[in-house]
Amino acid sequence: METHHRTSTIFSLYISISLLYFSIVSAFSPTDDYLIDCGSTQPTTTVDGNRRFTGDSSDLGSQFLKSTRTISLCDTNPSSPGLSPLYHTARVFARPSKYAFKIRNRGTHLVRLHFHPFDSSNFNTYETQFHVLANGYLLLNNFTVGKSQTPVIKDYVIWVDNEELVLTFVPSKKSEIAFVNAIEVISAPKDLVADVAMLVNTEKIEKINGLMKNALETVYRVNVGGRKVTPFNDSLWRTWVPDDEFLKSSDGSQKVSFSGRIKYQIGGASREVGPDNVYNSARVISSLNNLVPQRNISWEFPVVGGYKYLVRLHFCDIASISLGLLYFNVYVNGNLAYENLDLSSITNMALASPFYADFVVNMESSGVVTIRVGPSKMSMSNAIDAILNGVEIMKMNNSMGSLDGEICADSVFKNWPRRNFGGVVPLIAAMCLLGTALVVMHRRWVAKKSVGWSPIPVDVSEVNLNSEKLGINLR
Prior knowledge:
Layout: H1 8-18, E1 33-37, E2 44-45, E3 52-55, E4 71-74, E5 89-93, E6 97-102, E7 107-115, E8 130-134, E9 137-143, E10 152-160, E11 164-171, E12 178-180, E13 182-187, E14 196-200, E15 205-209, E16 216-223, E17 241-242, E18 247-249, E19 253-257, H2 276-279, E20 281-286, E21 297-302, E22 307-315, E23 328-332, E24 335-341, H3 343-346, E25 355-363, E26 368-375, E27 384-388, E28 390-396, H4 409-415, H5 419-422, H6 424-448, H7 462-470, E29 472-474
Parallel strand pairs: 1-3, 14-25, 16-17
Antiparallel strand pairs: 1-13, 2-3, 4-5, 4-29, 5-12, 6-11, 7-10, 7-13, 8-9, 8-11, 10-16, 14-15, 16-28, 18-21, 19-20, 20-27, 21-26, 22-25, 22-28, 23-24, 23-26
């Protein structure tokens, strides 16, 4: 049963205040912009987005890798010819290992981790399990890529208050290694994450603060009514997928597209918040036979229970023939989140001008976020009666600072088995004793034989000799 609240006044006030802090820039150029091709000695330029990734085995890229004895792995026989070169190499870790990035612009940062396993006679990257941490947040817990045929990209928004962002990869108890193919650390535009949103539940709708200083994981980024948007067409190099697989009910709705100019305004959504290719398509409900249809468009998004989620809805009236004709309701998880939404008044009386609204839902038990738009009591006949252009759903970190389970970052280190170090210390001690014995024997032999000799080199790493044959490099 739906809970109805009259929230137009309070929500409009929230929008008016929060939008004052937003501004439009002609072209986004991040202050912090680290693009790392893990395991590579050469830079890699991507086709989709034309971005240059620095190899972490190069002189320039090695400064970010703060751990030694990691392994550079190369896929000499890629299974997919069209696969980006980013996924032809990987960095493998047998113990907790770190990358550190100096932060010049403290605040919100985008962090993307790229994973794609490939065949190796030495390491099973398909079934390995590991953890990933970032400045005290637990991003991934016992993560495994599996036999995915396409790259897995984990997309995060993290508030960084320190001089460095440190990413730590930790093999799990069940695995010997961790790995990563590529890393992105980018300072985000100031308007990407607002500090305020509306908490929506069955009891009430209220404003909450402090969103910016949470860690967020993007779970869904959806272009409603449109095609897939690739990083090449997004100024923050994001991917937006079509909404078809999430569409639950679309009776009486239709897709619309717009070939005109999207009117980004000061105080509204910028291109970094949502690109043109998201705002120039939509799904709408329109009147038929001079009657306002009594139906909604609905979407369902499966999520992991036990977390709060930031739900961002993107709107842009590209379908109305005139201002002041579009009024509709927005529902989140069956609750009336916005009543009589009037895009004309919010966008200062402009059509094709984008706007977004942020809602927070607490998914304590339910595993599905539902979104619906439909006509309101103020909807008109012979007009557009509901519209939605885009959806983003982001998981918020829990009270333990985790985005993946009821475990904190400190526990990962405490529980990590010291197996890799347990054998090292006795081995070093044994080698020292053996070395001492050899020196004593050599001196006695020299004393007996006063002839010159050339010692066999003993400082060559046996592991390195083997690794050359296997096509891997150790750092």
